[in-house]
Design a protein that fits this description.
With about 270 residues, the protein is of the alpha/beta class. The protein is built from nine helices and 14 strands. The strands form three sheets. Strands 8-7-6-9-11-10 form a six-stranded mixed β-sheet, covered by helices on one side. A five-stranded parallel β-sheet has the order 2-1-12-13-14. Strand 6 and strand 7 form a beta hairpin. Helix 1 runs parallel beside helix 9. The longest helix is centred in the middle third of the chain and has 15 residues. It comes from Aristophania vespae. InterPro entries: Cof, HAD-like_sf, HAD-SF_hydro_IIB, HAD_sf. One of its GO terms (molecular function) is phosphatase activity.
């Protein structure tokens, strides 16, 4: 339970599906709410499954000088690229995970702070991801031969039932070796076990010398569950899965109906 004598200092927000609506353009109302947060001396820290480079467009647009988290918390970085944390999966585990994923009809991506490896850069999912994140992939003939310690392995494909099944089976097999969660219905993220958004929240609280309960968290997907659980106040988007709503203190509107901005206006600002 949060100590009410400790004021909120940070809003830690997911990006895609939360701050960003489907067109990936921050709405005028959300921009207004960000200005009101800044006027109240509340920091906005972004926490995303995206690679850090894929977050920079928005960090620059908002002129954020705050610490943010990419790859679900594998990488914690400052506004000018300073790395506070860069946690990778070890090479033997990366090779084992690739081998376990290869029999399935999915795409496998390997990502670290600098690199994004794929076997086919022409697929619809890769092209979409490149357009969204402004990060260009590097195509290789064989991922196993080019395996390296990485921040994130992505298993992705259009069959969302298969992705959900892989999440379940891989958590059974690798729950002590990796954090395995979906950042969208068609994208399964595999990171180091300590690389979660919740762990990132605790790390950012420590860097700012505040308590985790002084952070408000808002998200929309299963990879945001740990983020909300570690926060002083958790807000789920209206379109979020029930598992996230179950750990939230509040549920706002969906991201097509100003859910993020309404959460700030109606839930957050009155509690500052």
């Amino acid at each position: 339970m949060r100590d009410k004598d400790l004021p909120f200092k940070i809003i830690m927000s997911d990006m895609d599906g939360t701050l960003l609506p489907p067109d990936k353009i921050i709405t005028p109302k959300s921009l207004e709410m960000i200005e009101r947060l800044q006027a109240a001396d509340i920091k906005l820290c972004l926490a995303s499954a995206r690679p850090p480079k894929g977050m920079m467009r928005y960090i620059k647009q908002l002129d954020l000088n705050n610490i943010c988290a990419g790859f679900n918390g594998s990488v914690i970085f400052g506004p000018h690229g300073h790395l506070y944390r860069d946690i990778t999966l070890p090479l033997p585990l990366v090779q084992e995970l690739i081998s376990a994923l290869l029999p399935h009809p999915i795409e496998i991506w390997l990502q670290d702070y600098e690199t994004w490896l794929v076997e086919d850069a022409s697929t619809e999912l890769v092209i979409y991801e490149q357009g969204v994140t402004d990060v260009a992939p590097r195509e290789v003939d064989n991922l196993l031969e080019h395996a390296m310690p990485v921040s994130r392995i992505v298993a992705t494909g259009p069959d969302i039932n298969l992705i959900a099944s892989l999440e379940h089976s891989f958590n059974n097999s690798y729950k002590d070796q990796a954090a395995i969660t979906r950042s969208s219905p068609y994208m399964l993220d595999i990171t180091a076990p300590v690389a979660t958004k919740g762990a990132a929240l605790r790390a950012i609280a420590e860097l700012y010398k505040i308590q985790p309960q002084q952070i408000i968290a808002i998200g929309d997907a299963e990879n945001d569950i740990s983020l909300l659980e570690e926060s002083g106040l958790g807000i789920a988007m209206g379109h979020a899965p029930q598992a996230l709503k179950n750990v939230a203190s509040f549920v706002t509107d969906d991201n097509e109906n100003e859910g993020w901005a309404n959460a700030v206006e109606k839930i957050i600002l009155p509690r500052l």
